[in-house]
Amino acid sequence: MPVTELAILPLTHMLTSSNPTLPTSIIEKFRTAKAALEHASGYTFLYFQQIEDPTIIYIIGKWESAAAHREFLPSKENLALLELLKDDIVMQGEEGRKMAMWHLDADIFGLKPTRMGEKSVLRAPVISCNRYFIPTNKKDDFVKKFTEVKGLLEDYTTPYPVMGGWRIEKESIEGKERDEWVQISGFENVDHHMSFAKTEEFAKYREVVGLVEGFEVKHLKPIEGL
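^ thats the sequence. predicted structure below, dont judge the formating
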């Protein structure tokens, strides 16, 4: 089954929330990268900019398998992309401020809408990328609870469904592996997402948080022209 690639690229350029505009030169390089990735994988790749920190770029794409992507990594085509972007992206750096990439065991692009009138979550004006860090012994409990409350969030995010998948390449923290659930939800804007916490349904939905050891929530907007 196809997998979803999630790549996080910190830029070397100085951008702020009040001035988040990407340089034209970067857009052009990303267009080149997008074309190369889509040619290699045969699937669509989408580019997003983090709202909280505009210097962080997210790429969401699709491969036939994680192995197919790994085969592409040492290719001359991919090495050419790394050379193209070497002055624009933090390739190596401190934890949390360097290029990162992994795969989800789900096809975020290919999941079919289950409700009438649904639209692709990846085409929402703003998407929320939630990363839930879950002790391995709590994974089954998390799945059960999330299945129970997912509809509460989907009722709120309509017409955008709630998508997600498990990270394939697990992180190891202090020598101990942990599971990670990555969830993608669509909203009209950041305030629309934040207002969910004010609803009656949120009290029930937030029960999933009691089963995680940590989480991260970031908001992304599509990059125009990509």
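The mean pLDDT is 94.
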